[in-house]
Amino acid sequence: MPKLDMSEIRSLVQSRQPGRPLEAPFYLSREILELDLEVIFGRHWIFVGVEPDVPEPGDYASVQIGRNPVVIVRDDDMQVRAFHNVCRHRGARLVTEPQGTVGKLVCPYHQWTYELDGSLIHAEHMAPDFDMSCHGLKKVHVRSLAGLLFVCLADEPPADFDEMARALEPYVAPHGIADARVAARVDLVEEGNWKLTMENNRECYHCATNHPELTISLFEYGYGFAPESGDESRCEAMAQYARTEAEFETAWEAHGLAWQERDELHGRPTAFRAQRLPLDRAGESQTLDGRAACRKLMGSLKRAKLGGLSVWTQPNSWVHLMSDHVVTFSVLPLSPERTLLRTTWLVHQDAVEGVDYDPDNLTEVWRRTNEQDGALVGLAHSGVQSKAYEPGPYSPYTEGLVEKFVAWYIERLGAHLDASGR
């Protein structure tokens, strides 16, 4: 891919055609990836994990956002804090494992030692006038949304996080994420640009032919359907779905659950969407038989048959919340052609593996679905490298959320370029 200068990137941003995918350089260019890391991942709220990643004081979790290593830690007062995972002496990483437990944060290089609140408490052989209070760890903004953890690397993060939290907490809070526990986690590296991973997630146009396990519990009519293309039997199936949806809505209302679609996926820095939908078969969970995979229900929920809640946040996450478990997904770019997808399964904190749930049954649908999606992302990335590639039209029925993701992305790049004069 030829090197792009900023004027060429600005021209690509300005010439993007609504209703179509991005031009190839957005997926292939290292210069655009660097801009993504600076503007998208460096200035917005990024989903990185869940409070159960750090359940007790001294527990930490590390994450890499571009060139920036971050450590998230639970302090002695049970507060979740985040810091740049960089010693204030000569820059060595403080923790190198993805997760662990520490009493203090100790640099392995020269043993500078920090409290869990980031303050420096030990630094041998320094000058008499050395002021430890000026050399604490550099903080990273961190917020919890009903147990979902977001960080922002910017000095001044977008101010609209609270608006998102107020909108989404009524949906998410009943599932009790903050008090759950991690049952499984899988990191998958996809051979494609991070935007292709996100675009693939934002539609289910491909689901019927590529995700046999996932579509066991999903209704086609919940994720996109062109009514005029259906024959009589499909039209009747759509009508049956409408009746099923009404039954679920009655149950959601009876249990005090927020369920109406709330869509603010573009037009704002911290963009999001939430919607509760019926599930097929037993209607309880995204499993191979549609039944709950865990006997202990999440949070304050008292009924298994409650369908599924889906939550999307820009730029890098989606979450599926059911009565018995929650699955979170975090997307982080590694290079123009490689992307990390981190998937975490959560169950009730008192659920016992092998007694209340079988981990294979719990994780099978999304393990297989992620592998299938990874292969599709690889195919898409391979294709956009061809000189024959040109952006085709989105389906108005099944790719509306893809358009909203791409529109948000272009909005954010454009706003930055305009503000910076670059």
Task: Give your account of this protein's structure.
This is Aromatic ring-hydroxylating dioxygenase subunit alpha. The chain is of the alpha+beta class and 422 residues long. It has 2 domains: 51-157, 3-layer Sandwich (Rieske Iron-sulfur Protein); 161-415, Naphthalene 1,2-dioxygenase Alpha Subunit, Chain A, domain 1 (Alpha-Beta Complex), CATH 3.90.380.10. The protein is 29% helix and 23% strand. The protein has helices spanning 6-14, 25-28, 30-43, 161-172, 194-201, 207-210, 232-254, 359-384, 400-420, and strands at residues 46-50, 59-65, 68-74, 80-84, 99-101, 105-106, 113-114, 120-122, 141-145, 148-152, 180-190, 262-264, 272-277, 308-313, 317-321, 326-335, 338-348. The strands form 4 sheets. Strands 11-17-16-15-14-13-12 form a 7-stranded antiparallel beta sheet, with helices on both faces. Helix 5 crosses helix 8 (359-384). The relative contact order is 0.16. The mean pLDDT is 96.
